[in-house]
């Protein structure tokens, strides 16, 4: 996941809710599930029937399949790996077996071969080297290393190495193969590299800052584009603090290799359940890829598995609106799959999409339940929130209130696969159980778990495996996903004004408890 901020405030309200007609009460997630054969052979077209059939155990079976795939393929399911391809095959086979119309949406993916860094003098040794995700030129440069305003002894903030053109004054970059050695800190990587290029450097090495353990290892998965708006002409690579310190020795020479990127097309999986109104499409999605470091069972096997469980349970539904599910590729590389998908749609196709629901990390082991803050009641959104998003948030909050379950806000930031949709004015919402934010003591009192630990202690790590999920959170959120998809499959009137049909059996949900006040004991 490209993470969303959560609120630090855990003083929320769960009043004894008064019911408001939106006309079937919601059973708790722990209710006894219907027999599998019964669920497989009927149209689960009411809330009660659907929630009887959607289970945490069903979703967990898909997580077990993702774990088996990762174990058999180098320990991960990252983009452009056999593990990801096997994950795609699994989703396609599962959805086709459930009777959905399945297609593959292929998109361009820039694979970056590994960078290389070798210190030639005073010793000939290969050093750690890493790529920036965007903005670097390519090529091979062999020459002198020129340190730029480094702070190697007690490198505490601020470190301004390379942030100003003046940092390069008095340094001789007049040669044909000069390599600027710059230290992380204070300003953006791209600003540092742009200043080095302007000063005459033929290559740049950016070393980590070294002020904390987290800022001492390899710099990973960052871009040179931002305050620096355009790609650079020269190769820029990253290294760790120790390697940078070795290169800072006077008289050091090095060889920098930054290969050109290669296009390795990747896949999104798109599945549809046609509705009576094919011009009003209800979309839900989750990213399918993991980070290279681990299997990605919570991030984001959990969202992917929950969608599969819901899809199997509504496979015989005859919806009023077309339902479209998506499993996105290369989210961890910068939301690439979803961005390319939306960019490839015509305006008429975008206009058909009534709303988009995003599910990225819904079973964190030290969870809290969070809903994207479409009404900005806790966070002022750094993006324009499309009309209708507040109503999506409202539906999820009503559901959590109906089962006496505390919830909180997650920033409506666009830092996951809903970004491309909201940038095109499509209403969106979603659920999140937390990543590397630390659970407070107050939150532990409300949701249980362990205070002073990450909500997902294995976020983006090798240990994000089958042991790294909460079955309880998976069950609650899978039910919430199922309810939202079913509701909108019948009508999206409250979101985009398009009238549909009443949901069979009706639906009664209480007013949202809200994100203010105190939780009752």
Secondary-structure class: alpha/beta
Spell out the CATH superfamily of the largest domain. Zn peptidases
Which CATH C-level class of the largest domain is it? Alpha Beta
Helical region count? Answer: 14
Shape: elongated
- Count of spatially separate domains: 2
Report what the structure shows.
With 521 residues, the protein is of the alpha/beta class. The protein has 2 domains: 338 residues, Aminopeptidase (3-Layer(aba) Sandwich), CATH 3.40.630; 147 residues, 3-Layer(bba) Sandwich (Glucose Oxidase, domain 1). It has 14 helices and 19 strands. The protein has an 8-stranded mixed sheet with strand order 2-12-14-13-15-18-16-17. It is elongated. The C terminus is likely disordered.
């Amino acid at each position: 996941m490209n993470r969303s901020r959560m609120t630090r405030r855990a003083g929320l309200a769960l009043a004894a809710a008064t019911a408001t007609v939106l006309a079937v009460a919601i059973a708790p997630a722990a209710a006894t599930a219907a027999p599998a054969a019964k669920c497989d052979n009927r149209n689960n077209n009411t809330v009660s029937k659907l929630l009887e059939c959607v289970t945490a155990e069903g979703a967990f079976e898909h997580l077990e399949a993702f774990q088996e795939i990762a174990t058999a393929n180098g320990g991960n399911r990252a983009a452009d790996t056999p593990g990801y391809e096997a994950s795609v095959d699994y989703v396609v086979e599962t959805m086709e077996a459930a009777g959905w119309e399945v297609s593959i949406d292929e998109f361009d993916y820039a694979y970056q071969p590994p960078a290389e860094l070798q210190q030639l003098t005073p010793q000939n040794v290969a050093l750690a080297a890493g790529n920036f995700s965007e903005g670097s030129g390519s090529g091979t440069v062999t020459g002198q290393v020129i340190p730029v305003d480094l702070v190697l002894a007690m490198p505490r903030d601020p470190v301004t190495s390379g942030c100003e053109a003046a940092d390069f004054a008095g340094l001789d970059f007049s040669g044909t193969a000069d390599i600027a050695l710059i230290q992380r800190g204070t300003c953006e990587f791209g600003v540092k590299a742009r200043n080095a290029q302007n000063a005459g450097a033929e290559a740049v090495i950016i070393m980590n800052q070294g002020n904390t353990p987290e800022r001492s290892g390899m710099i990973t998965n960052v871009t040179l584009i931002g305050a620096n708006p355009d790609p650079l002409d020269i190769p820029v690579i990253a290294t760790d603090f120790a390697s940078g310190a070795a290169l800072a020795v006077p008289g050091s020479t090095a060889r920098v290799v930054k290969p050109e990127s290669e296009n390795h097309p990747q896949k999104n999986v798109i599945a549809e359940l046609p509705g009576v109104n094919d011009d009003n499409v209800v979309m839900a999605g989750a990213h399918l890829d993991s980070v290279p470091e681990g299997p990605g069972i919570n991030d984001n096997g959990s969202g992917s598995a929950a969608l599969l469980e819901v899809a199997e349970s509504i496979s015989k539904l005859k919806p009023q609106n077309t339902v479209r599910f998506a499993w996105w590729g290369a989210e961890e590389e910068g939301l690439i799959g979803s961005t390319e998908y939306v960019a490839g749609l015509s305006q008429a196709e975008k206009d058909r999409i009534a709303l988009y629901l995003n599910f990225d990390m819904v079973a964190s082991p030290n969870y809290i339940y969070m809903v994207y803050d479409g009404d900005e009641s806790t966070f002022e959104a750094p993006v324009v929130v499309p009309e209708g998003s507040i109503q999506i948030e409202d539906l999820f909050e009503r559901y959590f209130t109906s089962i006496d379950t505390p919830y909180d806000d997650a920033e409506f930031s666009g830092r996951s696969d809903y970004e491309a949709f909201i940038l095109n004015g499509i209403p969106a919402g979603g659920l999140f159980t937390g990543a590397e934010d630390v659970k407070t003591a107050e939150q532990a009192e409300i949701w249980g778990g362990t205070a002073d630990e990450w909500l997902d202690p294995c976020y983006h790590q090798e240990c994000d495996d089958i042991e790294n999920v909460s079955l309880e959170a998976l069950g609650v959120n899978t039910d919430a996903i199922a309810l939202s998809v079913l509701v909108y499959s019948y009508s999206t009137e409250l979101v985009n004004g398009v009238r549909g049909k009443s949901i069979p059996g009706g639906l009664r949900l209480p007013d949202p408890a809200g994100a203010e006040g105190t939780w009752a004991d």
